[in-house]
Amino acid sequence: MANKVVQTSNAPAAVGPYSQGIKAGNTIYVSGQLPINPATGELYTGDDIKEETRLSLMNVKAILEEAGASLKDVVKCTVFIKDMNQFGLINEMYSEVFGDTKPARVCVEVARLPKDANVEIDAIAVV
């Protein structure tokens, strides 16, 4: 079975040589999503880490939907953040977006993210 590239205009274009997502059988791999507005291509530049987290997750959601999945199908996420002191605020928005769905997760503090974003989130979903 061939892998299928997942591409949607409802999420930002890739900022490098990679796909927004790949569907391999019944598994969907969503590349790391920054808090970029897909309509403008602009990175969120405000001071609200919760809004940055929401935007990143909405981009993940858009890619999943293009692949025929939803956030309820996510089994694992990785959250990359620049400041572990914002962990609680990120968790608040993450919990709000995922609701009762609680995928496995890794959260790591990193020195720098693409475009100097403060958060990046990837996901794996199974349908």
Brief synopsis:
The protein has 127 residues and is of the alpha+beta class.
Structure write-up:
The protein has 127 residues and is an alpha+beta fold. It has 2 helices and 6 strands. The chain has helices spanning 49-66, 87-98; strands at residues 4-6, 21-24, 27-33, 74-81, 104-109, 119-126. The radius of gyration is 14 Å and the shape is globular. The chain starts with a strand and ends with a strand.
Labels describing this entry:
6 strands; alpha+beta; single chain; six-stranded mixed beta sheet; globular; 28% strand; 127 residues
Structural class: alpha+beta
Helix tally equals: 2
Distance between the termini: 16 Å
Given as residue ranges, the uncertain stretches (5+ residues, pLDDT < 50) are: none
Helix content: 10-25%
Q: Please describe the biggest sheet, giving its number of strands, its sense, and whether it closes into a barrel.
A: 6 strands, mixed
How are the secondary structure elements laid out?
Layout (H helix, E strand, L loop, with lengths): L3 E3 L14 E4 L2 E7 L15 H18 L7 E8 L5 H12 L5 E6 L9 E8 L1
Parallel strand pairs: 4-5
Antiparallel strand pairs: 1-2, 2-3, 3-6, 4-6
